[in-house]
Write a structure and sequence with these properties.
It is a single chain. The protein has one helix and twelve strands. The protein has a single domain, classed as Immunoglobulin-like, CATH 2.60.40. It starts with a helix and ends with a strand. The chain is elongated. The chain is mainly beta. Strands 6, 7, 8, 11 and 12 form a five-stranded antiparallel beta sheet that branches.
């Protein structure tokens, strides 16, 4: 009988500690990692989804966090092509879901972004830490992703110097890749 009482006391103590430390907390993090582009360098396009977490559940017993739709989308454009007084022209930005839902974000992003000079640190394919001068432009589009799931992002850009015509662009890109927002 003493072993049973001891087991009950230990379980009670663990349960008390569990409740005092906040109970069960369920959290989820999402990352979209770019694939290596090999030797043919293209600009690096990173997608971030700023958090819109809400906490649900019973405090001190079981709580979990979840995000509500629509999601914000932050597009980060990094290129190693540098120029004095650069302008980044976004010609189109389209999100295409697998169920044939198409979200055209071209009108919601500024047509002309001002990239800033930056240093891009990365690890190359030979596992060597590299530092290159680069240009970086960041833009957040609020409440633009209507649902979770896989999507195909297509972006068309051109990088030019201010005052030069778009025909003399330093770099033109049409990039398309698949990402998942679980």
């Amino acid at each position: 009988m003493k072993k049973g009482k001891l087991a009950v006391k230990i379980v009670s103590l663990l349960l008390l500690l569990w409740i005092l430390t906040g109970g069960l907390v369920i959290a989820r993090y999402d990352w979209i990692l770019p694939e290596s582009s090999g030797e043919d360098y293209r600009p690096l396009i990173l997608l971030e989804f700023p958090s819109n977490f809400h906490t649900y559940g019973i405090p001190l017993i079981c709580t979990y966090t979840a995000e509500t739709v629509p999601f914000d989308l932050t597009v980060i454009y990094i290129t190693h092509n540098t120029a004095p007084d650069p302008e980044l022209h976004v010609n189109s930005l389209v999100v295409d879901y697998g169920d044939s839902t198409v979200v055209d974000l071209t009108d919601r992003i500024a047509r002309q972004l001002k990239p800033v000079a930056d240093e891009h640190w990365y690890i190359d394919d030979n596992h060597i830490n590299q530092k290159k001068p680069s240009l970086r432009a960041t833009y957040t589009i609020p409440n633009c992703m209507p649902k979770r799931g896989s999507f195909h992002l297509r972006i068309s850009t051109s990088l030019a110097q201010r005052g030069k015509s778009s025909r003399s662009a330093i770099q033109r890109d049409i990039i398309s890749f698949i990402a998942t927002r679980p």
